[in-house]
Write a structure and sequence with these properties.
With 485 residues, this protein is α/β, with parallel strands linked by helices. It has helices at residues 2-17, 52-60, 74-83, 113-119, 181-188, 208-237, 265-268, 293-301, 365-368, 371-381, 387-393, 423-440, 448-460, 464-482; strands at residues 28-34, 62-68, 123-127, 164-170, 244-250, 269-275, 283-290, 326-330, 340-344, 348-353, 401-405. The protein has a 7-stranded mixed beta sheet, sandwiched between helices. Strands 8-9-10-11 form a 4-stranded antiparallel beta sheet, covered by helices on one side. A hairpin with a 3-residue loop joins β9 and β10 (348-353). The chain is globular and about 65 Å long.
Length: 485
């Protein structure tokens, strides 16, 4: 049914646009932004499923092998993406913040990319399968923004010949959580992925619930790939593809116990593929890039000057200087308070846990209702997890610092922070992170008043047992804070 909605949206856009020809000197820019998905595509090495459309983009454009989000959860990631700024620099780093009585305003000199495109004469739009009527697609920004910065939810509304900046929002990995998902898969994709053939990261047990969930996730990747194909087909049908630069990306990695909300590569490594006029075909970039670079890159493609404060870099500039490290941050997610910072080079990952007395899997209303987390907690309570899973997922405390050699340990299993042989690397990575925090004026904990303001919004929407669980988690967060944990 969701595919039918997308098809209807694409068909309607084709009828309304009338095949208008864009100004050849000013390319259209399309961001296809996907929820909750890691680089499980054929062009990134996934073998179990076929993803012909994203693979086509990689063949006809450029694939970034080492792209990373600056935040492993939706709203901070999207706040950073649309501004080209680290979410910690603009005060948008706590998930779903500024939604209550207390608001968050962008600092002076920081302007969302759609505003800049609009000022330059572009038609700006954000939509997707869930956008109905005049509804916009997913924004999820943690700061105050003018709705008028989007002219609509589809490029069909533009004037003849007017270039457009479009964000196509896809549901991605969240699809697998729908009760009707198996029926949708069979109807739209045919045979579902076989759970028995799934390969899990080594810290997850080969349990039936987890294997089935990962198989459903891979089917969500297949479904997303088909949606990408439908967007490309519409651009071709309307004669627009030759003058449109299309970016494909996800906001963060797979939603799982060590993925979404955490700074391991399962949570921050994302696919990023771009195709369009003038771009090298079949190229693979192995340098480190961040999603905040999309804003600067897109503006440059359109001939629009980026604000001086913008921290993202134009990835396609002739004088582009590759990053030697990328940085990410995790802060409060819903009611669950945390503060984690990470620096990653091509070889090493450094993670600093500022609240190490709290467990990795803190109480979380959002995550604890998921079947995979429920099952992991059941296996833990029954003593049925192996040593690795217990150590990685259920240690009652975390190390204040973590250091991983990604060359020999890509799954980040062996913390080298206490290893004397890696003292030099630890000191260098620690210094990198500290310098980044200072230079970007990275912010940390929110005030109790802001926390209470945003929690009131959650509570207002809750009833019954759901509210009781949420309130119990709030009490736990406040108790730990009072204990200095």
């Amino acid at each position: 049914m969701r595919r039918a909605l997308l098809c209807a949206l694409l068909a309607l856009g084709g009828l309304l646009s009338g095949g208008a020809t864009a100004n050849a000197a000013r390319p259209n820019i399309v961001w296809i932004v996907v929820d909750d998905m890691s680089p499980n595509f054929g062009c990134y090495g996934e073998k179990l499923i076929a993803t012909p459309n994203v693979d086509r983009m990689a063949r006809e454009g450029t694939r970034f092998a080492r792209a990373f989000t600056t935040a492993p959860v939706c709203s901070p990631s999207r706040s950073a993406l649309v501004t080209g700024m680290y979410q910690t620099s603009i005060g948008a780093h706590h998930h779903r913040s500024g939604r209550g009585a207390l608001k968050i305003e962008l600092p002076d000199g920081v302007t969302p990319a759609p505003v800049l495109f609009q000022r330059a004469g572009y038609y700006t739009c954000i939509g997707g399968p869930l956008a109905r009527g005049d509804d916009l697609g997913k924004t999820d920004y943690n700061f105050e923004w003018p709705r008028a910065m989007y002219d609509g939810n589809d490029w069909a509304g533009r004037a003849p010949g007017q270039p457009f900046f479009m964000q196509v929002q896809l549901h991605g990995g969240k699809q697998r959580e729908r009760n009707t998902w198996p029926e949708t898969v069979r109807e739209e994709l045919g045979e579902p992925t076989d759970p028995a053939r799934v390969t899990l990261p080594p810290y997850y047990p080969r349990d039936g619930v987890l294997l089935e969930d990962w198989a459903r996730y891979l089917d969500a990747v297949r479904y997303t790939d088909r949606e990408v194909g439908e967007v490309l087909a519409r651009l071709e049908r309307e004669g627009l593809l030759a003058n449109t630069v299309v970016f494909f990306l996800t906001d963060h990695g797979i939603s799982h116990a060590r993925g979404k909300q955490f700074l391991y590569d399962e949570g921050i490594h994302v696919p990023l593929v771009v195709m369009g006029p003038g771009l090298e075909r079949g190229a693979v970039r192995n340098d480190l890039v961040e999603l905040i670079d999309l804003a600067a890159t897109s503006l440059a493609l359109a001939g629009i000057e980026a604000p001086p404060l913008m921290q993202g870099r134009d990835l396609l500039a002739a004088n582009y200087q590759p990053r030697r490290a990328v940085f990410s941050a995790r802060d409060r997610c819903d009611e669950t308070v945390d503060q984690i910072r990470a620096a990653r080079t091509a070889r090493f990952k450094y993670i600093r846990n500022d609240l190490p007395q709290r467990p990795h899997l803190q109480p979380s209303h959002y995550k604890d209702h998921k079947q995979i987390v429920k099952r992991l907690r059941e296996l833990h309570a029954a003593g049925q997890l192996d040593e690795l899973a217990e150590r990685i997922l259920f240690a009652p405390k975390r190390a204040p610092e973590e250091l991983y050699d990604l060359e020999t340990d890509p799954f980040e299993l062996n913390n080298l922070a206490a290893d004397a042989e890696h003292a030099k690397e630890l000191a260098e990575m620690r210094m990198r992170l500290t310098k980044w925090e200072q230079e970007t004026r990275a912010q940390g904990a929110e005030s109790p008043e802001m926390y209470d303001s945003d929690m009131a919004v959650y509570l207002h929407a809750m009833r019954g047992e759901r509210r009781q669980v949420f309130e119990a988690n709030l009490d736990q967060m406040r108790r730990w804070a009072s204990e200095g944990k």
